[in-house]
Amino acid sequence: MEEILRRLKFYHHLELITFSDQTILEVSVEEWPIVDALVSFYSTGFPLEKAVAYTKLRKPFVLNDLEVYTVGGEYAHAEARKSPFLDGKVDRTKDGKEVRYPVILNRFEKTVAHKVCRAFKQTVCGFDLLRANGKSLVCDVNGFSFVKTSQKYYDDCAQLLAEIFLKNLVPPDQETAVAFKAEAEKKEMLENNIKPEKGLELRCLIAVMRHSDRTPKQKMKMIVSHRLFHDIFLKHGGLEDGCIKLKNPSHLHEMLDIFRRLDAESDPSLLSTEDRIKLNKMKSVLEMYGHFNGINRKIQLKSMSDKRNIGIISKLRGRNKVEQQKEGEENRLILIVKWGGELTPFGRKQAEDLGRAYRCLYPEGSAIPGGGLLRLHSTYRHDLKIYSSDEGRVKMTAASFAKGLLDLEGELVPILVSLVKNDKYVTGILDTPPSISANMQRVKSQIHDKLRSKEDFTEEDIANFTTSKNGAIAQAMRSVKNPYKKCEKVYRLVCVVVEQIKQMCMQEVESKCYYGEGLNHLKHRWEKLQKDFKNGNEFDMSLIPDIYDCVKYDYLHNTSINLQKLPELYADTKSLADIVIPQEYGITSEDKIKISREICSDLLLKIKSDLNSNVIPQGNNLDPFALRDIDSPNNHVRTRLYITSESHVHSLVNALKEGKLFKGSEDSMSKQALAILNNTAELNYLTQIVIMKYEDLKVDPQSDERFRIEILFSSGVKCPVTPDDVLKLHEESKSNNCEYIIKKFVEEDSVLLEMACDEQKAAELKQKAKTKVFAELRRGGNIIDSFPSGPRIRPRRGSGIVPSFEPSSIITTENRVPFDEVLEMLPNLHPLQVLHSCLRQKQLNYFIDHITEGYKNEQLSAWKKKK
């Protein structure tokens, strides 16, 4: 109440007289000062009867204790708070009070507030509103409560009390002359203090990202015809798509029950010995961990009579030497069990660190590294949505990234459930569509035909097999020279590794494998590759990605078991993988565009929608007075993060390379963008394509120059070349302790700033805190160029990054970090490189329209065929 009374003293039409305790307790009411309005506070021992007697004697306007917080029947004060579950840690002041920001209620919410007060018959009544999906719900009514430490509430309360007093005390003929001018004063204050910034403002950030480091994916296939499999195939709608995918725990339990029933059958006519062994292995896979979570295991059943599965059928028949399907066997199914592909602890840390580093892509608030995003988010000017595909490793990468981005605490599962969107609509955007399999199978057949040649590659071969004569694929082909000889060498090295692992198993060597993997599981992984890779005198080139995946995992994580030929095998396999993997998504420009259209059209259309939506969300509008202490009150940023798998990343990069955005353009930045993309050998874990949209407030809103698009690219995790690189990668990851440094800096800086009594002192203390943190960072020895371009930390000149515009209106000389003090948070990832920084929105719209042209018609035709 003292805060409210202190504000009432500024109203010149009011004079405040305070009754002392002695006056109230010892002096008779006849001797009390005569006042026009009485405000009394009830407490233990308060002489209420004397206050009543004074009221009867002097007849003042009464505002007693029960209405001390009353500020009018139509007034509602609302504050939004950060939820620890949804938004991260709750911000607190040095006194431990929760930091909240006043927000504006909409008309419906104000009506709800009025009805709540009337229903509970409390003039002052606090209640909680839950906002979700554009609607509001009253979830708790607290009754009589007081808004503590809220400057907005104190201002409003004092203003409304003054209006109430004047309305009841001033004679009607003078009412106009002394009318309160608070609204005019408010408008004047807002005009003087909250003016739109002039210059470039970040409006939207969109990132498409591959998942982080994972364990090798593994799978087993077999042909089944038992009625139990056919029944479950029909039960889950297999006839419609020709296949079913089971990931739900209850569905996996159904399959496990079938495996157990067949395992208990003694009739040898039901299953051959080989099939029984396979079923036992599949049963063991489903029984791993003792529970199902749908994250790391799934089962597929595909009909052998469906033409959509012709590719996998032909491949399976050739590998297992199965005769062509006989009459009466049309009910046979291909059973596929997949497991592995889990996000590793190393991958979780990388994703979390990358999320933390992404804060530096946003306008820098108060010169804190990455503090700009947290400031935006805490003041409800950040519209964030994170989407992920249905794969477990992708979802956990998204949760880990969100944890680092928003400085969250706790386990990943609650973060995943609350922040990561993964519904049927999102799955349709980010999962690879089944219709793509036919085109990719055709391309894989072409790759197989080309690479099974026993002749050396010629320059003509390279020109026919690549779209860039000097790109990474061409360099890989020159490195391989003879594909058949290289495959022979890879196979020999795989055999050596398998023998070494077998020796370890026979000697019962204690397993030191990463992530708790046993030697028997390790042996099974390698034996399966050894068995499937070579069939007679031919090699299955489609297994090159699987071999590289397995080799890379052990090369990075299992150095402790000292597989002697692994470094050599890694180098040879990588050169083959650099040819096979990117070419699976199209050899010619036409194939690349076609496959990109089928895989990522939905994603591109969603990105276009995100970029063209310029409406600032109104859900949590801050009250204008709450913006007085915010440096950029008009800066609302929309962030859309799409975490997906390798297929979408390759397709999107191919679209950028072959679409009408950079290709054919004569400007230097487009040429350099194509050079960067063509010279990228591998789109490794955490590959990122980032699109940033800026608004130039100095340009006419109707002009094409109003919005500017910047595209950045990183090929993700750096590929180690030598064993020393592997060790260095791990050491750099372990020593990267920037989270603690920044957290400590933010905490100390906030305390220092709160201690400042004037602007000059605050500036001095801010600089002191800034100097302290960078001194601490320099001692860590991890200061390298990172994340160039845009309204964020800038790189040193000569760093090899494409030059970009400098939005000086956003980064001022007061808060810019010096070039020699730029922090590299993730030394084991390739930094973001600017592909182009001066694109217009209509250029990007045209590019997306060109890539997705005809896609909707194709989808409609496919839907009609199903019907």
Q: What characteristics describe this protein?
A:
single chain, 867 residues, alpha+beta, four-stranded antiparallel sheet, 32 helices
What does this 3D model show about the protein?
With 867 residues, this protein is α+β, with helices and mostly antiparallel strands. A 7-stranded mixed β-sheet has the order 13-12-16-7-17-18-19, sandwiched between helices. Strands 8-11-10-9 form a 4-stranded antiparallel β-sheet. The chain has a two-stranded parallel sheet with strand order 1-2. Strand 1, helix 3 (48-58) and strand 2 form a beta-alpha-beta unit. The longest helix is centred in the middle third of the chain and has 24 residues, at 483-506. It is elongated.
Shape: elongated
Largest sheet data: 7 strands, mixed
Mean pLDDT level:
76
Per DSSP, what share of the residues sits in E-state strands of 2 or more residues?
5-15%
| SS elements, strand count | 19
Structure at a glance:
With 867 residues, the protein is of the alpha+beta class.
Helix-strand blueprint:
Layout: H1 2-8, H2 21-26, E1 37-39, H3 48-58, E2 61-63, E3 79-80, E4 101-102, H4 107-119, E5 126-132, E6 135-143, H5 151-169, H6 172-175, H7 182-193, E7 200-210, E8 217-224, H8 227-235, H9 238-241, E9 243-246, H10 249-264, H11 273-286, E10 297-303, H12 310-320, E11 333-340, H13 345-358, H14 371-378, E12 382-388, H15 392-405, H16 412-419, E13 420-421, H17 424-430, H18 437-451, H19 459-465, H20 472-480, H21 483-506, H22 519-533, E14 534-535, E15 538-539, H23 544-557, H24 566-583, H25 589-612, E16 637-644, H26 646-658, H27 668-678, E17 688-696, E18 707-714, H28 723-735, H29 738-755, H30 759-780, E19 833-840, H31 841-852, H32 855-866
Helix pairs in contact: 1-5, 10-11, 13-15, 15-16, 20-24, 21-22, 21-24, 22-23, 23-24, 25-26, 25-31, 29-30
